[in-house]
Amino acid sequence: MDTSTSQDGLKRGLKNRHIQLIALGGAIGTGLFLGSAGVLKAAGPSMILGYAIGGFIAFLIMRQLGEMVAQEPVAGTFSHFAYKYWGDFAGFLSGWNYWVLYVLVSMAELTAVGKYVEFWRPDIPTWVSALVFFVAINAVNLANVKLFGEMEFWFAIIKVVAVIAMIVFGGYLLVSGHGGPQASISNLWNDGGFFPHGFSGLFMMLAVIMFSFGGLELIGITAAEADDPRKSIPKAVNQVIYRILIFYIGALTVLLSLYPWSKVAAGGSPFVMIFSQIGEGLTANVLNIVVLTAALSVYNSGVYANSRMLYGLAEQGNAPRALLKVNRRGVPVAAILLSALATFACVIINYVIPARALDVLMALVVAALVINWALISLTHIKFRKAMDAKGEHIVFRSFWFPLSNWICLAFMVMILGILLFTPGLDVSVYLVPVWLLAMWLGYRYKIRATRH
């Protein structure tokens, strides 16, 4: 295959280092920096075990996706495989589900960016800074895929360096004794035990923990524009487990050893607590830069993922053919602009409608994520059966097929069960059948339109 242009017209401008850092960036986001505080309050130190469980399930799903992508590197991978190996509706559902998911996530991250800027300049309304970054990041994605790769590369480096700095500095405080008399690894079990609220405290937080790993599947979307996908995709997928161990398990273990967890929980984000050792002013500003970068990184990836998914849907006939329009630099302009329009509408909605609307939208994100992961595992079962029937050599095998698929699917059902019994989040479970019905009606309309 040509190294500069893929078979579907997209430019192969992503180097191996871009793929690696995009994969790494997907594992480090606002879920780690900000979401960990709520989990800590409910689960205590046992949250470390929770992130290990969640990370393991996410890794199994990434191996399943990685097997399919390495075998057939194409644009809009989730939708492509569901469409080819399962059926028309599965392809239609997985593609549009992923697109809507990232539109909603992009809306939330863009709104968060506005709030982070407000920290420095409260006189600037949230919508103004959100609009500025909206224009800037879409402009970058319209330029060429290599520029997107470079931008995400540096965004990811900032996040990675921040987490490594936290681990190293925290380790230094523990070993040197400069962390004070309260700094000890015994903090992991002394303050009410490793499970201060019992196993149920951790169990009820598994749903929140799992969504910290949403974004890892972005590896699959990069396949059509990777220089050597059969080499870079397996490498990126295999390194996910080490990244989870270092950036989640490592960081949280060090941080929770520095302070009694109950004091950390009362102070907000665990990451704020470790930075407070350096100095208050610097703490707030450094942390704000990191969370701002994390939000921009997710939005940047969202713009990329959405446009490529729309391109893939258009190739299959599940979206208008006009979305196949690619400029001379190999960028799917129409797909980027439509995704931008949808995301911009979400920002407006978030601006004019009270906070309750945001809760409902984020509940949709939760539902879309569970559907997304379940579709990957189910599609992989059908993909492997087709490969085995043809006697094809599998380039990059997933673990324990088909047992791992059923473990992942059972876990997704369990997550829906947890959400159902979590006040405020139960609406996301009720929205799943509504969303599936909407997708079915959309699919039937598409079938009727193609017949005429």
UniProtKB/TrEMBL annotation:
Family that this chain belongs to: Belongs to the amino acid-polyamine-organocation (APC) superfamily. Amino acid transporter (AAT) (TC 2.A.3.1) family.
Domain of life: Bacteria
Domain Amino acid permease/ SLC12A per the UniProt entry, residue ranges: 18-450
N-terminal signal peptide: none
Gene3D superfamilies: Amino acid/polyamine transporter I
Positions of transmembrane segments: 21-40, 46-65, 85-104, 124-141, 153-174, 194-219, 240-261, 281-299, 331-354, 360-378, 399-421, 427-443
Primary location class: membrane
Record localization: Cell inner membrane
Claim: Secreted is one of the keywords in the record: no
Topology with respect to the bilayer: Multi-pass membrane protein
Pfam families: AA_permease
Record organism: Silvimonas iriomotensis
Stated name of the protein: Aromatic amino acid transporter AroP
Sorted UniProt keywords: Amino-acid transport, Cell inner membrane, Cell membrane, Membrane, Transmembrane, Transmembrane helix, Transport
Coiled coil, from the record: none
